[in-house]
Amino acid sequence: MRSVALAADGGPNVGLGHLGRSAALAQAFRELGARPVFVDVPASCRFWVRSLGFDLAALSSRRWDILAADSYRFSPQDWQRLRRQSRNLLAFDDLGTCRAPADWILNGHVYARGLRFSAGPAAGLLLGPKFLPLRQEYWSPSLRRRISPRIRRLLITLGGGICEALTETVIKAAQQALPQAEIHVAIGMLAPKPASVAATAVVWHRGLMSLRPLLESCDAAVTAGGQTIYELAFTGTPAAVVERGPDQKGNVLGMAEAGTVLLAGKAAAPGLAVHLRAALRRIDRDPALRARMSESGRGLIDGHGALRVARLVLGQSPRRP
What we know:
Low-confidence stretches: 317-321
Shape: globular
Distance between the termini: 17 Å
């Protein structure tokens, strides 16, 4: 049985995006008969990893057949250490700037083929939504969405980290733009509720292991530009998107160009509430637009990216002595 280690960043200020897509890969490796283990997991995230049924270990506990690494914070020394501990190294590279001595580079984002990658010429490139890793609950097909005349249920989901002020701004803007809608707010297990809106008329969901049932039950969403933007596309959920940081710019612009989302602006912009209200009103009052956004998303993401990656890496990766 091939041993697979997954080293991913996570925590209150980082969120669960890196761990989430690493978990998707881990599930695919497990499905194909390998033994995935998460290594050096931050203390705040260990319960979440264990709840998915994965074991924890130290990176240094053995030399791994395959190691998948996902962090913006790894230094050149970190990458060399990961290389020494693995026979085959896969690196997530969202920006094309990773200089890891990797056998495989993975970027499943919609903008991936427009980047020039800094990795060595020997690295295999797994690029684009075909390789976007979604967790196992997204491997079964999504049903065609029924488009309602107006938005009845709106989901707000802005990532797994701490973003109290932004969540508060988005809730207030949504309530003003969609007074008829029932508003659901999903926050990560590491994120507190914003104190000033905790008692308002919204439905809170904290630490959900899967967003899919909630995505499929809501008519539209407000999201950030991280991993959830692709889960929304898979379920055909139209969305207004807030860019939380520069690393999300490619996702936000790429998905807007693909027709799956409307842009609402940057989180730090002073006019965010105004632009978000306008985007939500447009989505609300145009069911034909929502239908087009839904079909565009469903056509872009099929949910099988993690399995494609795992098959390639298990079947074709060069084993180093």
